[in-house]
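Backbone description:
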Amino acid sequence: MLRRRAAFATVRSDTSYSRRSHMSLDDPVILTCAISGAVANREQCPAIPYTPEEYAAEARRIVDEGGSMIHIHARRPDGTPSYEIEDFRAITEAILAEVGDVVINYSTGAVGVPVEKRIAYLRELRPDVAALNMGSMNFAKYSRRRRELVFSMVFANPFDEIVELLTAMNEFGIKPEHECFDLGHLGSLAPLIHMGVLKEPLHVSCVMGVLGGVPPTARNLAAMVDNVPARSHWGVIGVSREQWMLAATALTLGGSVRVGLEDNFYLPDGTMARSNGELIAQARHMVESVGRRPATVDEARERLGVGRAPVAVSGNTRPGDRRSEGVSGGGAGARPDHGR
């Protein structure tokens, strides 16, 4: 405990978050799709998948349009959120059976779900990547029409939980995705690197558009990128219709992009998307319009430092495990348990 406190108090300048990222416009863009989220339902958007078969059909559309990573919140077949191993397993098996290979990314964000339960499905299933919220924050939604907060809460992600999840990811060979909702969350990376629980290069996502986090502007994204540690892969997660402006900004700054029905239902013209594939197709068009190209699944694996290691299936086997040597446990929507 004393060693941990010392690490937070004294961080060497060479692990400072003030170093600039070295991503290039020549780098292929990792297109991630947040396939379902945990809270929105079909009354809000009919395309949200509930069953493993529906997740698989959406995954096919995503991969066919250029997506290389799928971010998963598990649901039961009735659409309610689940943190059970068997629901994550059924969804993941269905996706991999349909598409063959894609980078599998699990959410670990939740409100009222013990850390031990979240670690349990990571331990059993070993996804390639796991999203990790990097700090506590106010989390709210405001209605301008009603002039009131629709909901408001504190989304707690204390350092003790962050370290516990990182330690588990290191043990299980999972790459962390550091979801940063504000500049202060980026600042939390440096002491964790110094402590040795976080291994560089990092995979960082700047989450923008949640009330309580950084406001979703191009200049604010540029400021966040300036604080991403060097050599990191970074991307943007834009929540609601600001997603497309933020995606355009990220692409011109050299970053990657996440879209999907967890974060936003709408295409740039205001039309509700009929599938995740339509959102990925729009993102791919934007990538190509700025002279860049989507990463293949193999290129995404290489950039993130994760070899092909399909999630543990029935029988607890992991065929084709080629996870890169020396890789650390190496890893939004409008609601807290979209916290990735």
Summary: The CA atoms of residues 37 and 73 lie 5 Å apart. The chain has a mean pLDDT of 88. Strands lie at 31-34, 69-72, 103-106, 129-133, 137-143, 148-155, 175-180, 203-208, 233-238, 256-259.
